[in-house]
Automatic annotation (TrEMBL):
AMP-binding enzyme C-terminal domain ranges (all copies): 548-626
Source organism, top-level taxon: Bacteria
Any Gene Ontology biological process: acetyl-CoA biosynthetic process from acetate
EC number: 6.2.1.1
Domain AMP-dependent synthetase/ligase residue range list: 102-486
UniProt protein name: Acetate--CoA ligase
Residues annotated as transmembrane: none
Keyword Mitochondrion: no
Upper classification of the organism: Bacteria, Bacillati, Actinomycetota, Actinomycetes, Frankiales
Species per Swiss-Prot/TrEMBL record: Frankia casuarinae (strain DSM 45818 / CECT 9043 / HFP020203 / CcI3)
GO CC entries: cytosol
Keywords: Acetylation, ATP-binding, Ligase, Nucleotide-binding
């Protein structure tokens, strides 16, 4: 137990000193809040209130933190588990909570986003600017026929228009369906098709490290014939490339705004009005359309953003380096920060362009006080070296956060020493697309932290561990579940209630949410997330389903069969390894490997490309024909093989082991 008074300069100039400092800290199990850190929002009352009566606690927070048109009288309705509702008879508008109320309180000139472009361009977007554009776009969408409940797709890079697009949907009750900009247009098509999107908002071209990809042209080629998709709105992006426009269907974003009426009063919507769908990977090839509704989701994002990061909207400058296409971007770039009226940095580009120090340059330039990123990014920065952050003054930082995967203690300590100067609390926030907001996390400056542990449940949240048989585990490892509903939980899978119940609420009954992660509880009641227990791979904090990648691979004409597993990777956490059997007498070579990787990139996106492809004459199967991925994983990670007695043909494993043994 220690209060680490590690000085900022320790080891930054000298690699050996830094290594020695980190090495010496590895034995420290627990970091108590530093006396030098002054918490702004006290939390004791919240903890006590949530423990005494969670529903009363959430009701009070919903009254305090959100602005309502019609106050709610009901809090939780749990009469039909697992279909829970929160605050169901209340009416509100989410964009009003994120924009109008701040402008009405005289904070219209406050910066919402300091946008920083890849080529160093700067744009300052105030709350008043966002409100003006949101109203015009909301009117513009209405003029294209969008009504409350209709789905609007959003496929945009990290530019302020992405926030405007989401807020404009929320203003009129349209349901947004954002697709991560790194996905391939065919993945966009699938998501638009299954959600019956009426309009897609996209960009002419997206920049990445000095090159501009023609997004709109690619979208046309893939989505041109979708019957429900009536219109495509095209933002002229930074470094605009122009785009082919189809008369009657396509409209430029800036022209739509210019001709739309400036006023669009926020439409009062029911607390349970659907807000967005976000597709995420599950254990089958078909992505899950996770559906969130209005008030409960907004409450979760608003409350946790404040409580976890100790945000003071009047003084903090906040930056979350995620992409808005993931849930982290929804909750902690757009909705949480805007609802709290915070000033944020939004950065368009990659962490290594134009140079490896760009992130630290931005922190220095905008005097960022709260920084939130992913462990994989931290590990990459470690690889590049402490000299890059060492070039910049990072003394504005107060709080650091991580999300997306377990953080290894060494990366935690590097973050703590090199970026946080030993003085910033680190909040390791555990949550999921489904949970809407963080559920297990330290409260900055309140919770003692242990490197690698997401620590304790947030107020109002009830996680537990169960054994395979459903027995409670009070210390040791088990299956992570949440035993009570919480406001920002998903409400269903879009148009698939059955899959919703089956995926999350069948194993231990309809009131126990099964997370899909295994975890360990230590003697202090701290949670240590181990990882997924389903067929989901976590590559650099991005969720991918083995089945989805397999189905992309087998769609290639040369392939007869494929099995995909995860392999431990120091940089990305996990990496994708594909075992592939080719059709006919074709044999695997480098050209085929490159072709398959490119094929997966085209069908899903670059992030789904297998790191390794292993050619297999046959795959290990049980007598009933099920591929035994567990054994393939043993092979990929070079481990001794687990039980092979249930295999139909044990010789398959011998052949594979011999092959991989020589290929590596
Ligand atoms: C993993 C991202 C350990 C976990 C917000 C979860 C984590 C999945 C952490 C959800 C963390 C997320 N420590 N593991 N702090 N945060 N995970 O839906 O396996 O993209 O189930 O949401 O990421 O990924 P998703």
């Amino acid at each position: 137990m220690t209060d680490t008074g590690v000085s900022v300069s320790t080891g930054l100039e000298n690699v050996a000193d830094l290594e020695a400092t980190l090495e010496s800290l590895l034995s420290v199990e627990r970091f108590d809040p530093s006396a030098a850190f002054t918490r702004r929002l006290p939390m004791d009352a919240d903890r006590a209130a949530a423990e005494a009566d969670p529903n009363a606690f959430w009701a009070r927070k919903a009254e305090e933190l959100l602005t309502w048109h019609t106050p709610f009288t009901q809090v939780l309705d749990d009469s039909n588990p697992p279909f829970y509702t929160w605050f169901a008879d209340g009416m509100l508008n989410l964009s009003e909570n994120c924009l109008d109320r701040h402008v009405a309180a005289g904070r219209g000139e406050r910066v919402a986003f300091h946008w920083h472009g890849e080529e160093g361009e700067r744009r300052t977007v105030t709350y008043a600017d966002l409100l003006a554009d949101t109203q015009r776009l909301a009117n513009g969408l209405r003029s294209l026929g969008v009504r409350a409940g209709d789905v609007v797709g959003i496929f945009l890079p990290m530019i302020p228009e992405v926030a405007v697009a989401m807020l404009a949907c929320a203003r009129i009750g349209a349901v947004h369906n954002v697709v991560f900009g790194g996905f391939a247009p065919s993945a966009v098509r699938e998501r638009m098709e299954v959600s019956d999107a009426k309009v897609l908002i996209t960009v002419d071209g997206a920049r990445r490290k000095g090159r501009t990809a023609p997004v709109k042209a690619a979208v046309d080629a893939e989505l041109g014939d979708l019957p429900a998709l009536g219109h495509i709105v095209v933002v002229s992006g930074p470094g605009g490339t122009g785009a082919p426009m189809t008369a009657g269907r396509d409209v430029w974003y800036h022209e739509l705004l210019a001709t739309a009426a400036p006023d669009c009063p926020p439409e009062p919507l029911s607390a349970e009005h659907p807000l967005f769908i976000l597709y995420s990977s599950g254990s089958t090839a078909k992505p899950k359309g996770i559906l969130h509704t209005t008030a409960g989701y907004l409450l979760g994002a608003t409350y946790t953003h404040r409580a976890v990061f100790d945000i003071d909207p009047d003084t903090d400058v906040y930056w979350c380096s995620a992409d808005v296409g993931w849930i982290t971007g929804h909750s902690y770039i757009v909705y949480g920060p805007l609802s709290n009226g915070v000033t944020s940095v939004m950065y368009e580009g990659a962490p290594d362009y134009p140079d490896y120090d760009i992130w630290w340059r931005l922190i220095e330039e905008y005097k960022v006080t709260v920084f939130y990123t992913a462990p994989t990014a931290i590990r990459t920065c470690i690889k590049w070296g402490a000299r890059y952050p060492g070039r910049h003054d990072l003394s504005s930082l107060r709080v650091l956060g991580t999300v997306g995967e377990p953080i290894n203690p060494k990366a935690w300590l590097w973050y703590h020493v090199v970026i946080g100067g030993g003085r910033c609390p680190i909040v390791d926030t555990w949550w999921q697309t489904e949970t809407g907001s963080a559920l297990i996390s330290p409260l900055a400056g309140v919770t003692s932290t242990k490197p690698g542990s997401a620590t304790l449940p947030l107020p109002g949240i009830s996680p537990a561990l169960l054994s395979e048989d459903g027995e409670p585990v009070t210390e040791g490892t088990g299956i992570l579940v949440i035993t009570k509903p919480w406001p920002s939980m998903l409400r269903t899978l879009y148009k698939d209630d059955e899959r919703f119940v089956k995926t999350y609420f069948s194993r231990f009954g309809p009131s126990t949410y099964v997370v899909g992660d295994a975890a360990r509880l230590d003697a202090d009641g701290y949670f240590w997330i181990i990882g997924r227990i389903d067929d989901v791979i976590n590559v650099s904090g991005h969720r991918l389903s083995t089945a989805e990648v397999e189905s992309a691979i087998v769609a290639h004409e040369a392939v007869a069969e494929a099995a995909v597993v995860a392999q431990y990777d120091e940089q990305t956490g996990q990496a994708i390894v594909a075992f592939v059997t080719l059709a006919g007498d074709r044999s695997g070579d480098e050209a085929t490997e490159a072709e398959l990787r490119e094929h997966v990139a085209r069908r899903i996106g670059k992030l789904a490309r297998p790191r390794r492809i292993i050619w297999a004459d046959d795959l290990p199967k049980t007598r009933s024909g099920k591929i035994m991925r567990r054994l393939l994983r043993d092979i990929a990670e070079g481990r001794e093989l687990g039980d092979v007695t249930t295999l139909r043909d044990p010789a398959v494993m011998a052949a594979l082991t011999a092959k991989v043994g020589t290929a590596r």
